[in-house]
Every structure is written in C-alpha cells, then in structure tokens.
Specification:
The complex is a heterodimer of chains A (790) and B (162).
Chain A (H helix, E strand, L loop, with lengths): L10 H23 L5 H20 L3 H18 L7 H23 L7 H22 L18 H5 L11 H11 L1 H6 L7 H11 L7 E8 L6 H15 L2 E5 L2 H5 L6 E7 L6 H9 L3 E9 L43 H14 L6 H12 L7 H32 L3 H27 L1 E3 L1 H4 L2 H12 L3 E6 L4 E3 H22 L3 H6 L6 E10 L2 E8 L6 H11 L4 H6 L2 H5 L22 H11 L3 E7 L3 E9 L4 E9 L2 E6 L3 E7 L4 E4 L2 E6 L2 E7 H5 L14 E8 L2 E7 L1 E9 L13 E6 L5 E5 L1 H30 L1
Parallel strand pairs in A: 6-8, 13-22, 17-19
Antiparallel strand pairs in A: 1-3, 1-4, 2-3, 5-7, 8-9, 9-11, 10-11, 12-13, 12-20, 14-18, 15-16, 16-17, 18-19, 21-22
Helix pairs in contact in A: 1-2, 1-4, 2-3, 3-4, 3-5, 4-5, 7-9, 10-12, 15-16, 18-19, 19-24
Chain B lengths: L14 E9 L2 E6 L3 E6 L13 E7 L2 E7 H4 L12 E6 L4 E6 L1 E9 L3 E2 L13 E7 L2 E6 L1 H4 L2 H7 L4
Parallel strand pairs in B: 2-11, 5-7
Antiparallel strand pairs in B: 1-2, 1-8, 3-6, 4-5, 6-7, 9-10, 10-11
The chains are: A alpha+beta (790), B mainly beta (162).
Chain lengths: 790, 162
C-alpha cells in the first residue's frame, strides 16, 4: 500500500532525522529507567514521546501518532507517580521503540513496513489501564484529583469505561475527534501552556466541520482584552480569513460575532498548510488590537485530531528567562492557577513585545526569535561530501601553487615579484590547511552514535543467554569521520555479541570460579597517534592458546607442525580465520564463526587493523585501530603500466630495489625470500587485472618492489617507478570496472591526471590467494628444513 | 530506463535541438539537453577489468567520470585520437559519462516531424540506443538514446563512477 504523508518534498529527511533522535532519546532513557526511576529521565522520555506524537500527527502518520500517544500516556503515569516500576513495561516499550523506527522508515519508503503498531498501541493501553487499576486498588487513600477532569495524562473517560473498546471503537470519527480534543486540554496543563480556553473551541470546530482531504490549518488569534472593539476586530479577522484564505469554520462563528459577542480568542479552521498561510497570518497580524496569530496543521481526514495539542506547545521558541510581563495574552488564563510556565511566558512575552512594534513586524519578531534559538543547522551529507571534494582539490592546487612559486624564485632570483608570490602561496597554503581541518572537522561525529546502540544490544542478548552483564562505555565523545563511523558499527556489533556469547560466563559458572556473578563488557574509544583506537573487552573465560592449537589442527586449518611453530599471541589470531569457531555449540547470537573473519575484513578494508589479547580465565580484549577519516589518506604513489597508482600507506610495509636474480621460482611464480619470509612477487598492473607482462626493471637493472601486507599475508608488488608519498583525496570509482577487484577508488594527481587507488587487502585476497598459500607452504617447508639442520 | 519518445525536449515545441557527432562516416545526434559539455581528447587513465568499450576515467574538474569509446560500443574499428577527436560529456539517467567521437560537427534544430522512428532494419538488440532517424537533405542522422546505449549491466557498471 502506498502511503502519502503531508510533507513538503525534502522534509521527509528532516522528519526522519528528528524522529530518530527522539526515539533514541527514549531508548536510552528506558535503559536507565529500567534500573532506576529518575524523575529527570522520566520527564525527558515523556517530552520526547510527546514531541514524536506531535510531529507524527503533523505529517498525518496516524499509526505512529497513536502509538506514540499510548507511549506518552504510559510515561505520563510514571511522571504523575501512579506507576513506579518500569521493569514490567521495559520489554513492550523497547519493542515499541523498534516498531517506531520502522514507522519512521515508512515515511521515506512510502509503504507500510510494519503491522505491529495497532497491536502494540492496544497492548500499551491495556498494560497501563490494568497497572493503574492495580495501583489505585493498592493505594488505600487515593490522591485527591486536582480537578474533576481525569488526572493528567491518563485516559479519557471513554477509554477507562471501556478499556477493550479501542480496536472496535464504535464512536464515529467525529465523536472520537471530540474526545481527543477534550483530551488535548490535558497536555495543555501538562506543558504549562496558557491555552486551556482554546481546546474547547478547537473541539467545537473539529466536531462541527468534519474534515475533507485537503490540508487544513487551525489559526488561533488573540485580541487585546483592553480593546474597545473586540467584536469588530473578530469580524475583521473572520472576513480577512474568508477573503484571503479559505475559511472553513470559526469559533465563535460569524453569526455569533455579528450578534455582538465579545471575546479575546478566535479559532479558525482554514484550508491550507501552516506554511501556505504565511500571507494570511501577516494580514491577520496587521489588524489592530490583534496580539498574536498562530497557525498549525489540522489533521487530514477526521480520525486523527492529535494535532490539537501542538499549537499549544510548540509554536514559539524563545529565551526562557524573560520576566513575564502582564500581557494581553494572559487574559484567558484565569482558569489556570499558579505561576506561568516558561512556555506561557514566552507566548505572553512575545505578545506584549510585539505590541510595542509596528503591527506588520510581528512576524519578523517571531522569526528572529526562532533564529536566535537555533544554534545548529542540519546539512545534507552529500553537500558535506561535495565540500570535502572541493577542499581536496584546493589542497592539491595549493601544492602546485607552492611549487610554481619556488620555480619562480629560482628563475627570478631575489625579485620582489618572486618574493610576493612566495609569501602569497605560503599564506594561501595556511588558509587552505585550516579550511581542510575545519571541513574535516565538520564531518566528524562522536562515536556515541554507534556506541549508543549497545546498551540495548547487551541487555537483549544477556537476557536471552540468561547471563548477567554490565556494559561500561568509555570515551563515547571521541570523534571520527562519518565515513568510518558508518562502517564501524557492524564489526563492533560482532565483537560485542561475541564477548557476551563466548566470553562472559553464566552467573553460576562465575560464582564457581570466584568471580563476581555479573560479567563486565567494556567498550572504549580514544584517539591515539592520529587514529582512533576502539577496544571491546570482557572479563569472561578468555581463550586458551593450547585449545586453539588443538582446534585448528582438528579442523584441518593448519598442520600440527605449523601450529606448534606458531607463538601463543599469533595463535589467538586464528579466530580471524574464515570458518573458525571454538564455541562448542552454534548459538543464535553469534552464529558459526563467520563473525571474526568478517570483522577483520571490514576493519582492514578501512585501513585499520585488529588485535586480540586474551588471558585464559580472565578475559579477552579485541582492539581496533582505525584511521580518523577515509576521505584523505596517506599513500605511496607509483607508476605501473600506463598509469599512476596509489598504495595506501596503511598497507605498505616497505619498498625495495632488488636485482631480478634474487627471485626464486616456485611453481611458475616469482617469490622473494626476505628475512626468512617467502613472499610472492607480482607486477602491480597484472595483479589488478591487466595482461601479464615481464617484470619491469630500471635502467640499472633493478626491480622496484613495494611490500604490502594485509590480514597477515604479504606480497611484493613490482612497479615501474616510485613517485613519492602524498596525501590523496579518495574518490569513488565504485563500479566503473564492472568488478572492482583490487581498487578502492581513484584520486586526482597534482597534474590533474586520475590515479587509481589500490585496495591492498582485496588485492591480496583475490588475486593472490593461491600464490600466498603456495608461498606459505614453501615457507613452512624451508623452516622445517632449517629446524632439521639445526 | 527512459521511455522512448520523439518529442521536443528543448527549444520551442515541435523542435529538437541536437548535437551532431561523427563516427566513421556516420552522423549521430544527441539531445542537447543531455549533453553537459564537449572537451578535447585528453589522456585517459585505463581501469583494469573495465568493460571492453570503457577506455578508462578522466578528471572533469574534480569529478571522475568514465569514458566510453562509441566506436568500440558500436563494434567499429577503434582509431587513434586526432585533432578532431572530442569527448562529449553527457548525462545518462544514472551517471555522467564521456563519449569519444571522431568529431563534433554542429548543433542542429530539427523539426520533430523530420524524425522517424527506427525502421525494422535497425531493430533488434541494438535498437535500444536508437531513438529515431532524422533525414536532413541527403544526410541521415541517427538519434541516440543515451540510456539505451548501455545495457542494464553496463548502466550499473557505469553508475557511481562520477
């Protein structure tokens, strides 16, 4: 089914981003609340649910609005103290979080992705009503209700009298709308906004004029109570709305106004979205004695009237510390007692302030306020990438400019022009460098965005495995480039799952071992030498090199001789071998030993490396080292065939010039013996897929070699010439090759030519798997022979 | 893939503005709206394992775009670049691509009526890249449909190269 939402093109991203933020806030909050009922956190999740509800209703996402509404109500019960323990609700609430994510995804996908919300909404409602009933029964002296109306953020009477009536609600949409509009009075007080009087009017409007399918807005106008011409102003407003806009209905109605009814509050239902009504709002504000005009989307159709809460809480932002002036906007406050809330002050303040200004400037005042409150902006990442591209170009040209200035200095000697050019190019280089830092910084995000998913993951898995585990996160503010961040989540997920599944023991086992029953998984991140170091550590059973040795031999991954020759620390690395798994049982959580292999692959593809330390009985630590950014990388430039190739420095071990006679031949391949290691040699261009050609030698008969390394295997790439070491901007070449084996992308050289960036790990993996195996066999044979000799 | 339609996409209604290129002795026309710019031949960086007719990639002001030899694509003999050789940078539905042609001769304003749909002779596997044929006096100009020029696989192969 195709879903259509009331969104401007491009706004779906904004909606998605903001909603996901709120959802995450709730999720994080829930994980805290599960252990401790912190009032601040309760308020935060309540507000987040409320905001979500509002934005879902604004775009007409009914299922999402209903679900978030139910969630908000439940949080409300914790807020009011009716409920005190989150634990019994944690599972269903976390499930709700997952469903909400799917509902948000629906906005971008445009189709229904989950059929769970209706069911969950009902579940939440039932949970709440039974829990509140129990709570009420338990409490011998029920708290006196603040007002005859239902307690804040509980169900409207309709729900309480017929708790199971939600699904087959016999009420007509209009009646339902009325009920919900009444209910809208609750959040009003909850939010401390001064608009109680508005709700009945909106209620009346929505009941009297059931909606069509055009976008509609509710406009709330307030008139200065000191005005002597209230009914005239009201009539002016209604006439203006009728003329400029498309007035559907108003409360009070035109007849009532014409019969002389004086009031300071007018609510109108107008066709058009709030954004479309800017002109009308400006005109309405220009009418004398009008102190405020607010517009907000009315729900499409009839069933969903969530939105009535929105104009009361989210319309105006501003500093909260202003002294509340006794403004006109407070006149309809008589019904609310107590000091005005910040939100109320904001509105009152705005009203009063705009009165002192020319009428037409009111909209601007509100606009400026908004601007002042908004410290951050959202930018599409593709624009950041484009910016990064341009800066990369700039940096390349910076180098060229400096070179030109140097040439000029040599040619002209001590000439003012040459000096000037040199100074200018230096200055330019400094600015370009700073610009590069700034733009790189823009793309940096705290690793928190990835780490934040783990408290939930750990909780769920620990529960499933019936283990007690606490997760400690350190250094979540550590920043790294978005490109790396996107890639690091999955490998980390594997590691965390592994730590829980294979590392941490059950509480009984731990007790028997004299360990604290609760296991600890520690996730840390920090910067180190211009890279980011991430560790996943557990205090579980650890790995035993002797057991690993037995296991690899049993699995046929290594000969007994080779295994015996391998050091303990190298032995631990076999967990990264494809198909290796020491778990006695294949579990649902971490599969069957494909994980670590994938982790290592992904990390090395990013120019990182993985390390593992383990002490039997004490735990395992896996460390990942990653570059801070993938966009600009250090590379060794070489020529091979007709082109320049860039080899990322992370994979380069050393460069060598050797005589061809130092090669030996093993099964038709050239190999080089280097400090006891036997390394296969291949021409770089043929390794990349060009036709094979004889080894190129320099004029003096040497072969230029670059020894590269990935995943513990090495090879020597023969190249035509070394060009030098440069910072390069990695650009996507994605699929131009059809199969892009061995290429990570392309880059633009200082002379404008395109160079190819080699993906060393893929190159080693694909092109030379066989040769490497052969070389390893040869190497083992040589070592064995040596041992015999010794 | 874009639908085949013979209607004016540029200029006044009922007219079609095309860039006429030459390949061997044949004239080919590209909708000017799809042509980004026309540049002189320049050194191309060959990419290993690329499809046969993809000559490699070039740098177009910081963007890396694949370059396709149209002669190769149409099964003609490939020739060394000359002073007349041009790279027509055009936009397919999925990516930007450079097309090597022998020369670019002119920009023409064609009445839509002058364009005939592809005759049966030219239909078959290759008909996808022909949008129609225009008769101009005694000349025949084959109008190319860029999106049909590369098969689905080629499209994916080219996509994202920029």
């Amino acid at each position: 089914m195709q879903l259509v939402f009331d969104l401007q093109p491009g706004d779906d991203r904004l909606f998605t981003d903001e909603s996901l933020e709120q959802i995450e806030r709730i999720e994080q909050g829930l994980l805290v609340l599960e252990h401790e009922l912190d009032a601040n956190v309760v308020n935060e999740v309540f507000r987040a649910a409320h905001t979500l509800k509002g934005s879902a209703a604004t775009i007409g996402h009914r299922r999402m609005a209903e679900l978030t509404h139910a969630m908000e109500d439940l949080f409300g019960a914790f807020r009011s103290g009716t409920l005190v323990d989150v634990k019994p609700f944690a599972d269903v609430l976390l499930q709700t979080i997952d469903v909400l994510r799917a509902l948000v995804a629906e906005v971008q996908e445009g189709e229904v992705l989950t059929d769970a919300p209706e069911d969950l909404t009902r579940q939440l409602r039932e949970l709440l009503s039974s829990a509140t009933a129990t709570a009420a029964a338990r409490s011998t002296a029920p708290k006196p209700a603040p007002r005859p109306a239902p307690a804040p953020v509980q169900f409207p009477a309709a729900h309480q009298s017929a708790p199971a009536g939600e699904a087959g609600d016999p009420a007509t949409p209009t009646e339902k709308a009325a009920v919900e509009a009444e209910q809208a009075a609750e959040p009003v007080e909850e939010e401390g906004v001064s608009n109680v009087a508005v709700a009945p009017l909106i209620h009346r409007l929505l009941v009297e004029s059931p909606g069509g399918y055009d976008p509609r807005s509710i406009i709330v106008c307030r008139i200065d109570p000191m005005s002597e011409w209230q009914s005239v102003r009201l009539l002016q407003l209604v006439l203006e709305a009728d003329e400029t806009g498309d007035l559907v209905a108003s409360a009070p109605t035109r007849d009532e106004i014409e019969s002389g009814l004086g009031t300071t509050l007018l609510v109108m239902l107008v066709r058009g979205r709030p954004i479309d009504l800017l002109d009308l709002r400006r005109r309405l504000s220009a009418i004398d004695d009008v102190v405020s005009v607010e517009a907000v989307a009315a729900p499409l159709g009839t069933a969903d009237t969530e939105i009535v809460a929105a104009p009361l809480s989210v319309e105006v932002y501003g500093p909260e510390d202003d002294v509340p002036p006794m403004g006109a906007a407070r006149t309809d406050d008589e019904s609310t007692a107590g000091p005005p809330s910040p939100a109320e002050r904001r509105q009152a303040d705005l009203g009063a302030e705009s009165r002192g200004l020319p009428q037409t400037d009111r909209m601007t005042v509100a606009g400026d306020r908004l601007k002042a409150a908004q410290q951050t902006i959202r930018i599409d990442v593709t624009r950041l990438d484009e910016l990064m591209n341009l800066v990369g170009e700039l940096v390349v040209h910076k180098t060229r400019l400096q070179q030109s200035a140097q040439v000029l200095a040599v040619r002209l000697g001590d000439d003012p022009l040459a000096r000037q050019a040199d100074e200018d190019s230096q200055q330019f280089a400094r600015i370009a460098g700073q610009l590069q830092d700034q733009v790189t910084g823009l793309r940096m995000l705290p690793i928190e965005t990835v780490f934040n998913r783990f408290p939930r993951v750990v909780r769920d898995i620990a529960m499933r495995l019936n283990k007690e585990v606490q997760l400690i996160i350190e250094g979540k503010e550590t920043e790294l480039d978005r490109s790396v961040l996107e890639e690091v989540g999955d490998p980390l997920g594997h590691l965390v799952r592994n730590a829980l599944d294979h590392g941490v023991e059950t509480a009984e086992e731990r007790r028997a071992l004299g360990k604290p029953p609760t296991g600890t998984v520690r996730l840390t991140a920090r910067h180190s030498d211009g890279r980011i170091l991430i560790t996943v550590e557990d205090d579980g059973r650890g790995m035993d090199p002797a057991a690993l040795r037995r296991s690899v031999v049993e699995k046929g991954l290594m000969t007994r001789e080779a295994a015996d020759l391998t050091s303990d620390s190298d032995m631990l690395r076999v967990i990264f071998t494809p198909g290796f798994s020491t778990a006695k049982t294949i579990t649902e959580v971490s599969g069957r030993g494909v994980g670590m292999d994938v982790v290592r692959n992904n990390i090395e593809r990013l120019g990182g490396w993985v390390d593992v330390n383990s002490t039997p009985g004490q735990g395992t630590r896996v460390s990942l080292s990653l570059p801070l950014t993938l966009a600009i990388i250090g590379a060794l430039l070489v020529t091979s065939g007709a082109r320049v190739c860039a080899l990322p420095l992370t994979g380069v071990v050393e460069t060598l010039r050797v005589e061809p006679r130092s090669f030996s031949r093993v099964r038709g391949h050239n190999v080089l013996t280097l400090r006891d290691r036997v390394i296969p040699v291949e021409q770089l261009d043929s390794a990349l897929g060009d036709p094979a050609r004889p080894l190129a030698t320099s004029a003096r008969g040497f072969v230029n070699l670059v020894v590269v390394r990935s995943r513990g295997s090495e090879m020597a790439l023969a190249v035509d010439q070394f060009v030098g070491q440069h910072e390069i901007v990695l650009k996507s070449l994605s699929d131009v090759t059809g199969e892009r084996a061995g290429l990570a992308g392309a880059t633009i050289m200082a002379d404008g030519q395109v160079g190819l960036v080699v993906d060393i790990s893929a190159l080693l993996e694909r092109s030379n798997a066989k040769a490497v195996a052969e070389a390893e066999a040869a190497s083992a044979a040589i070592k064995k022979a040596r041992r015999k000799v010794a | 893939m874009a639908e085949k339609q013979v209607s004016g996409t540029t200029g006044r209604t009922g007219e079609l503005q095309i860039v006429v290129c030459e390949l061997a002795d044949e004239h080919y026309g590209l909708d000017i709206a799809k042509v980004f710019e026309i540049i002189r031949h320049q050194p191309i960086t060959p990419v290993p394992r690329a499809p046969r007719f993809v000559k490699g990639v070039i740098n177009l002001r910081g963007r890396i775009i694949p370059v396709v030899d149209l002669r190769g694509r149409f099964g003609m003999d490939e020739v060394e670049p000359t002073k007349e050789t041009r790279i027509v940078v055009a936009e397919t539905s999925s990516t930007r691509v450079g097309l090597i042609v022998d020369s670019v001769s002119e920009v023409l304003l064609l009445p839509v009526d002058a364009v005939e749909t592809t005759p049966g002779v030219a239909s078959g596997a290759d008909a996808d890249y022909l949008r129609g044929i225009a008769k101009l006096g005694d000349r025949l100009v084959l109008l190319l449909e860029l999106d049909g020029l590369f098969g689905i696989e080629d499209q994916t192969a080219l996509a994202g190269a920029a």
